[in-house]
Amino acid sequence: MKSLPYFCRGEVVRGFGRGSKELGIPTANFPDSVVDNLPADISTGIYYGWACIGNGDVYKMVMSIGWNPYYKNTKKSMETHVIHKFKEDFYGQTLSVVLVGYIRSEKSFPSLEDLIAAINSDIEEAKVKLELPEHIKLKEDNFFTSTTNSSPVSSSSAASTSQSIINGH
Ligand code: ADP
Ligand code: MG
């Protein structure tokens, strides 16, 4: 996928309450404005990358890009599970992410146990892949340290010059 790594950020909005949190895997949802900016070559499926809330620390993440049942599966959704235990929810805050790599396509699973097992294996794969030198360097990208990171932006770029432009300095 030529658009990877893909940088974007936006406000965390409420999802459709599918009980992800009850499964121990909460997923923070992006608003349509962020989803609608996705380049066409970013297909649905499971991705790994880096994420931060507001100006906080940068953590590993897995993201599901899928079809949004609220819109009868005609619109995409982007749901990020940050691989970190937070003390509180962060609805309304700015989530910044970089999609680094692709894990697998969307699948349906025969049981809830199988779904949870698949997600846990995605998380393990993300943890390992993100340790690769070419991936770990994205954690330090100035996209995450920008003091102006409250405005929603998106960009696909491997070049730090472009990052400077979207970060507004
Ligand atoms: P919703 O249907 O509203 O998305 P979820 O059950 O998926 O509800 O929970 C998502 C919310 O949980 C996020 O919006 C965020 O505020 C909170 N949250 C707490 N910890 C995490 C985490 N590690 N990753 C993602 N979201 C988290
Ligand atoms: Mg969710």
UniProtKB/TrEMBL annotation:
GO terms for molecular function: ATP binding; metal ion binding; riboflavin kinase activity. It catalyses: riboflavin + ATP = FMN + ADP + H(+). Pathway: Cofactor biosynthesis; FMN biosynthesis; FMN from riboflavin (ATP route): step 1/1. The keyword Transferase applies. Its cofactor is Zn(2+). PANTHER family: RIBOFLAVIN KINASE, RIBOFLAVIN KINASE/FMN ADENYLYLTRANSFERASE. This is Riboflavin kinase. It comes from Poecilia formosa (Amazon molly). The lineage of its organism: Eukaryota, Metazoa, Chordata, Craniata, Vertebrata.
